[in-house]
């Protein structure tokens, strides 16, 4: 969706959405409201969704909010959201902590990002770059060919159910790669540098 559901309200202020943005858990909030939630807790960590308690690592402003960017108040809130995304979009310090955080956040964001990507690929009005579309299609096609082909790193005939692990691992890596590509597109599109 390019914006929150029509008859929905912000679960923080219980009012109509003002500068609506969608969290990686798929819930919608007012931009100011979710920034207040973040500032109320520790500003050194991402805030948790008030509804499902998942860590919010990505906030995507709605299309209507982006069209109003010329308004100084909207620009200020969008700037705060960009800063939040820059801080918690996977740019943590420490190599081991960064790898762990990125892997966990990408696994949790997988349904959200894939659902959004599928909607964007199917919508003829959206302009997803051709290079990104090609990378997504190539990753999906190559993993499908590997799973269907008789060539296998761990043969199912010998090891039974354990032999399916390499197939599942290939599918997981494919989906994580696709989610990472789309997350980078969203981050760049909504003010990342």
UniProtKB/TrEMBL annotation:
Residues 10-53 form the RING-type domain. One of its GO terms (molecular function) is ubiquitin protein ligase activity. Keywords: Membrane, Metal-binding, Transmembrane, Transmembrane helix, Zinc, Zinc-finger. It is found in: Endomembrane system. One of its GO terms (cellular component) is endomembrane system. It is a multi-pass membrane protein. The chain crosses the membrane at residues 130-148, 168-188. InterPro entries: DUF1232, RNF170, Znf_RING, Znf_RING_CS. This is RING-type domain-containing protein. The lineage of its organism: Eukaryota, Viridiplantae, Streptophyta, Embryophyta, Tracheophyta.
């Amino acid at each position: 969706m390019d914006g929150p559901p029509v008859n929905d309200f912000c679960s923080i202020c219980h009012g109509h959405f003002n500068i609506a943005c969608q969290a990686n858990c798929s819930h919608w909030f007012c931009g100011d409201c979710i920034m207040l939630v973040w500032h109320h807790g520790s500003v050194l960590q991402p805030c948790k969704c008030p509804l499902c308690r998942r860590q919010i690592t990505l906030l995507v402003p709605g299309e209507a909010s982006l069209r109003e960017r010329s308004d100084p108040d909207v620009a200020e809130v969008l700037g705060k959201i960009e800063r939040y995304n820059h801080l918690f979009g996977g740019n943590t310090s420490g190599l081991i902590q960064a790898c762990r955080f990125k892997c966990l956040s990408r696994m949790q964001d997988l349904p959200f990002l894939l659902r959004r990507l599928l909607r964007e690929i199917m919508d003829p009005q959206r302009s997803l770059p051709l290079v990104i579309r090609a990378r997504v299609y190539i990753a999906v096609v190559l993993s499908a060919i590997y799973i269907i082909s008789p060539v296998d790193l761990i043969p199912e005939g010998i090891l039974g159910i354990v032999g399916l692990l390499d197939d599942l691992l290939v599918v997981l890596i494919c989906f994580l790669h696709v989610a990472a590509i789309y997350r980078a597109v969203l981050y760049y599109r909504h003010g990342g540098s």
